[in-house]
Specification:
Order of helices and strands: HEHEHEEEEHEHE
Strand order of the largest sheet: 2-1-3-7-8
Strand content: 15-25%
Number of helices: 5
Structural class: alpha/beta
Shape: globular
Distance between the termini: 55 Å
Radius of gyration: 18 Å
Largest sheet: 5 strands, parallel
Helix content: 25-40%
Length: about 150
């Protein structure tokens, strides 16, 4: 009986540990994102969704949020203009992307897939193509726009 009980306890603990380490997509919704309120009501309380309302630079906040996590695809909901990501606290463009390199470099340690920016225009101009190339170089990840 003790062996059966021990087996059940060990099995339950192993399953619990495995379920905590399952890879899943992660969503970051920035306060600047069009439809922030709707996204907040839709996703609030879900463990794989982070709402960024911090005044700190967005790459820093996202890097801190990723700490200790392994995710497949990282989805970013953020305000954009062609060639720039306009987070609530930070604008990232080809001219300043390198200044956030220490944060971006850490993303590849936590993301196994790609970064998806929910925008149809961010990479549509020469500045957008340059931004995409810089972000991919700094993170070691593939960036797509959706």
């Amino acid at each position: 009986m003790k062996k059966i009980l021990l087996f059940i306890l060990c099995s339950g603990f192993s399953l619990m540990m495995m379920s905590q380490n399952l890879l899943q997509d992660y969503l970051v919704v920035d306060q600047s994102s069009p439809g922030f309120t709707q996204l907040l009501s839709q996703y609030q309380g879900q463990e794989n969704v982070f709402f960024n309302e911090s005044p700190k630079p967005a790459p820093y906040v996202i890097t801190a949020m990723l700490s200790g996590k392994q995710v497949v695809d990282l989805h970013l909901y953020v305000a954009v203009q062609p060639g720039s990501l306009q987070f609530n606290s930070t604008t990232i463009n080809p001219q300043n992307a390198d200044s956030f390199s220490l944060f971006f470099e850490d993303w590849k340690n936590h993301v196994t897939g790609k970064v998806i920016i929910h925008s149809s225009v961010v990479f549509t101009t020469p500045a957008g193509v340059e931004l995409k190339a810089k972000l991919e170089k700094l993170t070691g990840l593939s960036f797509t726009a959706n």
